[in-house]
Amino acid sequence: MQHKKYSLYYLILFILISGALASCKKFLDVEPKTATSDQVTIVDEASARTAVRGIYNQLESNDYYGYNFPLLGNLSGDNVQYTGSQAVNKTLTTHTVRADLGPLASVWTSIYNTINRANNVIEKVPALSTTTTFTEAVRNQLTGEAHFLRALAYFGLVRTWGGVQLILTPTQSAGTIGNVARSSVQETYAQILKDLEAAENLLPNTTNRIRATKKTVWALRARYHLYVKEWAAAIDYAGRLINDTENYSLPTPYNSFFANNASNTRESVFELYYNTTVTNTQAYNWQPSARGGIGWVRPADEFATVLSNAAIVGDRTQLLINVPANGIATWYGNLYYRTNGTDPAYIIRLAELYLIRAEARASLAAPDIAGAREDLNKIRNRASLAPLSLNTAAELLTAIESENRYEFAFENHRWYDLVRTGRAQAVLGITDPTKLLLPIPYSQILVDGSLTQNPGYGN
């Protein structure tokens, strides 16, 4: 009898625990409101706006532009080194990275989460009924922002990993894609352009430096056309913002766009805004302990020597600070310095558009030497450097490569610039061309049988 009593007790206990676990799982499966875009939540203007904010929130996350995505590119180039305790991060710089490197998986998942949130908005917001406040213009704007942000996300994926899975409808999560083969690089770029064209048709022609507008689309289109070597289109789209002198200009001195807690300056085309509630960890990782950080991410030694030479880089020496560490003077980066986590993430600046147009002009079948030189010298002038009197396309392209390196020293441009121009192997001493793409995260390969690994990395 006693035995039956305990058996009944344990049976009841098992049922209660099972029920609790099931309830817990249901609770955990519910995404936070800023992230949710399911049919329950996207039902009106307020929930549609919340869903779009959720896309930006994911873009700002620590595993995306808040730290880890720029880290992958920065450490793959020759401007930045990793000096912290997680020594495996150095394999990015030596190009011996393995598919099980932690940041690879976190970045991949974060980017696909961004895409999934955008997919929810693109699928559901256009079907909502308009009201006196939720007008067609508002509905179009929110949908257009989602298209732009999805294009930006796929742009990050394709230049880091090559052709990827094109997921254009909502899924339960980034880990439940399944049975979708990787598209080619060309197909991935075609989808990016399709999203940019959709966004361009939907967004207003206004100026907003932290939310996507038609002008933001034009800026990303300029970068897109440069990458796919469509020079005339790159010149066109870059020129649209350069010529908008009422809203965009290059403030002086060079550090005006980031120093003294600056944000949303006239140079900014698109940046991510952080505050003490939504923070990033850039400054914490870049600044030395004497200034509230850990200083694990630093300028590469050779590059610091160049960047500290005003005769070469002009005012861009302001990107460096020299702080004694263990009695030895050590260079640290100073672009990210707000240890409360409020440094903006600079996605597109006007300076990039000048250099895009300069490179495109120099790359034309009949190069526009004068125009390319003028754009290049505009950037040099802002940095307090003398103009260059170059007269050949080859000379100009070499100078533009260097100017890009100094201008965007710590903004995650260098690696991608070297790869897209075919210069990475020569400049960085990479003997294996398969290392020009990063490996697909091993954890994703494990859970998705349709996802194939990049050549040179095994399974």
Give an overview in words.
The protein has helices spanning 2-29, 45-60, 68-76, 91-94, 102-124, 136-161, 185-202, 214-227, 231-242, 282-286, 301-307, 310-313, 350-363, 369-382, 393-407, 414-420, 424-428, 442-447; strands spanning 80-82, 268-272, 297-299, 320-325, 328-333, 345-349. It is mainly alpha-helical and 459 residues long. Helix 7 (185-202) runs antiparallel to helix 8 (214-227). 44% of the residues are buried. It is 49% helix and 6% strand.
Summarize the structure.
The chain is mainly alpha-helical.
Keywords:
459 residues; two-stranded antiparallel sheet; disordered N terminus; single chain; two-stranded antiparallel ribbon; 6% strand
Which spans of ≥5 residues are poorly predicted at pLDDT below 50? 1-40
Placed side by side, the strands forming the largest sheet appear as: 1-3
Order of helices and strands: HHHEHHHHHHEHEHHEEEHHHHHH
Give the class from helix and strand content and strand pairing.
Answer: mainly alpha
Strand percentage: 5-15%
Number of helices: 18
Largest sheet: 2 strands, antiparallel
Task: Tell me the distance between the termini.
Answer: 58 Å
Shape: globular
Rg from alpha-carbon coordinates = 24 Å
The helix content, as a percent range, equals 40-55%
Mean pLDDT: 91
Say how many strands there are.
Answer: 6
